[in-house]
Amino acid sequence: MKPVIALVGRPNVGKSTLFNRMTRSRDALVADLPGLTRDRHYGEGRMGERPFLVIDTGGFEPVAKEGIMHEMALQTRQAVAEADVVMFIVDGRQGLTPHDKTITDFLRKSGRKVMLVVNKSEGMKYTSVTAEFYELGMGDPYVISAAHGDGVLDLVNEAIDEAVTLRPAEEAEFDPADHGVKIALVGRPNVGKSTLINTLVGEQRVIAFDMPGTTRDSIEVPFEKNGKNYTLIDTAGIRRRGKVFEAIEKFSVVKTLQSISEANVVVLMLDAQLDISEQDAHIAGFILETGRALVVAVNKWDGLTSDQRDQVKNDIDRKLDFLGFAEMKFISALKGTGIPQLLKSVDTAYAAATAKLSTPRLTRALQEAIEKQEPKRKGSTRPKMRYAHQGGQNPPIIVIHGNALDGITEPYKRYLEKHFRDTFDLIGTPLRIELRSGK
Ligand code: GDP
Ligand code: GDP
Questions:
Q1: Which helix (H) or strand (E) holds 313?
Q2: Residue 177: which H helix or E strand, with range?
Q3: Among the four residues 211, 229, 355, 396, which has the most C-beta atoms within 10 Å?
Q4: What integer is the mean pLDDT of 204-226?
Q5: Which atom of ligand 2 is nearest to the CA of 187?
Q6: Which intervals hold domain EngA-type G (predicted)?
Q7: Which atom of ligand 1 is nearest to the CA of 20?
Q8: Atom 22, ligand 1: which residue's CA is nearest?
Q9: Contacts of 50 (CB under 8 A, 6+ apart)
Q10: What mean pLDDT is reported for the chain?
């Protein structure tokens, strides 16, 4: 499980600036997906080999009873409850404010590990910028400049170390050979996740829950269908240790992100009896960002007229057009219809995500694509693609080598992607094309 870091503090202390710095490398990846609404408050970062999740919270007014400040306070509570480590950001230029003290009281009650971070400290001396903040009783402050990057690497490394020591020991590594494809079932509340889990797993679920090792935040529930093994990653209904806050919302972005990143294949559940919502699009965006294989399950297909069914399909095509690579299955979790087809799509997506594509086959497919349609000239030079090799799996990355490849246009890249997809039957997985010029 990835460590979860929450950024808390007054407005304008530099939380978003720090958030952007911590998640920077991911941003570039998502920026070029058209039509994708992103939730700017959750991000993934990476420190060397160590991935983590970071939650930015809005300005925090713990005592607000209603309105936007109240909403933000609720979000902050949820973020703190779900975090392993809280970074409490204060402003080194403005100094200590009464508001900072209120936040300190709130954080102390939360029982979470808190790191006090003095931001905007570029060009200032440690002793002078930190002196007044000792009054908060939060220990030695970390001094950073989010804008310039000073101190940020050390801070994040320490936060990850803290998170790791706080977590209960993880169980032995999961062996996919024994338990089949790992499936994360995600979707907004009431789409029918629990119903589908019950339909899939039946009473085997009970046995799984009695097994030792339920200290983890997600439980892996093995089941068998049509002679094949699968494992569901079940984060529903599992409480985090040390229940500091009773009322965590039923839908948890953190749990959704964690289960997506543990899965081989994600099943995104949509509710055919409701319109596609912003929340559906957000969840879809998260899945896309991780590059996981995906199947879309449109649930509650029972009891709809054929007109209504056409409407649902149109709605999905329009609002989730960026999921075009995924198979869509229409199911009823309640009646149990469409389930074998759904699992078949899971198998297909897994096979595609982990496909091994040899250099000769890829290069042949590349040559075919070029023969059908050459890339356009850029100025006086024409991009020259020579060969392709596989640069990674899950999702598959196809690296194309050649010269002057910066002249390859986006539409042509999409054309190549489609050609590779069709040639190698890569259904249900994102596919990344990378261009590498020789000089
Ligand atoms: P948030 O409201 O806490 O998310 O704060 P922002 O990240 O939006 O930053 C508020 C303001 O502080 C912006 O004008 C930032 O450019 C500025 N800021 C953020 N970090 C630093 C820093 O390290 N040094 C200085 N001098 N300004 C900063
Ligand atoms: P979750 O919050 O995603 O776990 O959703 P639940 O499994 O608790 O289901 C929410 C509601 O939708 C319940 O009342 C279910 O009975 C109902 N439901 C789930 N699947 C179906 C379905 O396939 N058809 C219909 N008509 N209702 C369903």
A1: helix 306-319
A2: helix 176-179
A3: 396
A4: 56
A5: 3
A6: 3-167, 181-354
A7: 7
A8: 120
A9: 3, 160
A10: 84
